[in-house]
């Protein structure tokens, strides 16, 4: 079974007397451990799709299955639970709290958990070290470069050990060199942790790094690239739950792709989670852009 299965998803918004069809009949599957880039021109539905995948919004019609639950039909309380347990979010403008240090910003993601202050400190410190910022933990966001601020935001998204990391234009506010560093960081985290990574971008340099690209145009999704073998060459992989292969916008993976070798599984939480499991993200981290 795929981690995500979207069927005939539409999302309509009303602007004055006009109706905007932001998503128009989207079919999409995402397997556990995939890295999917959602690429397309501005205003064509990328963020809307990401928000449905992150349970930040619901479709107007169709179903968004995540681990077997239809996110379109869950109560608000259960949706909040799924978001808290399963998703980490990274945004274009970092969304850090300006008055808190890097360390404190990362710790905010753990506050809703019954985690001791000592454990929060330890886990946030580890998350900052994982993104290469161990020596900047006492800095305020204004004392950090854009790339460093995005690293803090990534540490905050990952400190709760989510199954899925959803990143909306994570390099959209960065220069080219920093963009490359952040994408390399995300790629490394994806490889090492068996994360499912979903990145929204209008930048083809960024999109091409992902083994799968879903191209979105006028709310319709089609598959541009599906290099499952690249995805499976990672150091840490997951059981191919998505054995029936991907179908995006009616496109089905080729027999060759489907026949890619089966790899071994390593538990997602091998890195260790403090008691209490995953936590709700702070409001500022889950707010729609
Ligand atoms: N809350 C909303 N109310 C009304 N219209 C909306 C809303 N959110 C999105 N839209 C419209 O839906 C369409 C798709 O928007 P979306 O933000 O998903 O595009 P995008 O591809 O992410 O664009 P960008 O690259 O500029 O962020 C656009 O026409 C947008 O104006």
Automatic annotation (TrEMBL):
GO terms for molecular function: ATP binding; ATP hydrolysis activity; transmembrane transporter activity. Keywords: ATP-binding, Nucleotide-binding, Transport. One of its GO terms (cellular component) is membrane protein complex. It comes from Actinocatenispora thailandica. Residues 245-255 have a biased composition (Low complexity). Residues 226-289 are annotated as: Disordered. This is ABC transporter ATP-binding protein. Coiled coil: none annotated. InterPro entries: AAA+_ATPase, ABC_transporter-like_ATP-bd, ABC_transporter-like_CS, ABC_transpr_LolD-like, MacB-like_ATP-bd, P-loop_NTPase.
């Amino acid at each position: 079974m795929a981690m995500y299965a979207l069927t005939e998803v539409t999302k309509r918004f009303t602007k004055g007397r006009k109706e905007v069809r932001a998503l128009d009949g989207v079919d999409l599957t995402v397997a556990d451990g995939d890295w999917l880039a959602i690429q397309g021109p501005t205003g064509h539905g990328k963020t809307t799709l990401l928000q449905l995948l992150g349970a930040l919004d619901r479709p107007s019609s169709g179903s968004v299955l995540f681990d077997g639950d239809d996110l379109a039909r869950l109560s608000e309380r259960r949706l909040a639970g799924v978001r808290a347990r399963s998703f980490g979010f990274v945004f274009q403008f970092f969304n850090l709290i300006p008055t808190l240090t890097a360390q404190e910003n990362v710790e905010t993601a753990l506050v809703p958990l019954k985690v001791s202050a000592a454990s929060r400190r330890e886990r946030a410190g580890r998350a900052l070290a994982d993104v290469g910022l161990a020596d900047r933990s006492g800095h305020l966001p204004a004392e950090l470069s854009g790339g460093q601020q995005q690293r803090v935001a990534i540490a905050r998204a990952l400190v709760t050990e989510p199954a899925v990391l959803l990143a909306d234009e994570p390099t959209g506010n960065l220069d080219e060199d920093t963009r490359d560093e952040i994408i390399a960081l995300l790629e490394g985290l994806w490889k090492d942790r068996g994360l499912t990574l979903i990145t929204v971008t209008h930048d083809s340099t960024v999109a091409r790094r992902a083994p799968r690209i879903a191209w979105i145009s006028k709310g319709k999704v089609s598959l541009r690239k599906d290099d499952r073998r690249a995805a499976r060459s990672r150091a840490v992989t997951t059981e191919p739950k998505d054995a029936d292969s991907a179908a995006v916008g009616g496109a089905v993976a080729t027999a060759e792709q489907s026949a890619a070798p089966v790899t071994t599984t390593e538990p997602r939480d091998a890195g260790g989670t403090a008691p209490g499991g995953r936590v709700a993200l702070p409001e500022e981290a889950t707010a729609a852009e």
